[in-house]
Design a protein that fits this description.
The chain contains no helices and ten strands. The chain is mostly beta strands. The strands form three sheets. A six-stranded parallel β-sheet has the order 1-3-5-6-8-10, with no helix packed on it. It has a two-stranded parallel ribbon with strand order 2-4. A two-stranded parallel ribbon has the order 7-9. The protein is globular.
């Protein structure tokens, strides 16, 4: 039996068609996955504990990562994002951003070790503020 203090830690839903979702009540969540839902809008929580965000296969044009200081993994593959600021998530290690309409990306992620930008419309990418081997 769950205690009254228990909070939802994982929210995952896939292949359920919806236009928007409001997840602002999930303050203690560690993983959010809403995939292949056709989302055009998502309201994300202020969640310091969130480490994994997967919103792939939607119709999103804008997603902010600024409320997730511990985010390690993000997948926004297969959306309609044109401009993205990945530097909002300084602890990010993995970012899958392929198959968007991205023309511009801001990177300043010292812990980033896996970045997929394939199948976008990028004209140039500066890797000056990413880790060097």
């Amino acid at each position: 039996m769950a205690d009254a203090d228990d909070k939802l830690k994982v929210f995952s839903i896939a292949n359920v068609k919806m236009k928007d979702v409001d997840l602002t009540g999930l303050k203690e969540v560690k993983l959010i996955a809403v995939t292949n839902a056709g989302l055009t809008s998502v309201k994300l929580p202020v969640a310091a504990n969130l480490t994994d965000l997967n919103l792939e296969g939607n119709e999103l044009t804008d997603v902010s990562l600024s409320n997730f200081p511990n985010l390690n993994f993000v997948s926004l593959t297969g959306n309609k994002i044109k401009k993205f600021d990945l530097s909002q998530a300084p602890n990010l290690g993995i970012a899958y951003l392929s198959s968007n309409k991205m023309k511009d990306i801001t990177l300043n992620n010292p812990k980033l070790w896996n970045l997929d930008l394939s199948d976008n419309e990028l004209e140039s990418v500066s890797l000056d503020k990413t880790p060097r081997t």
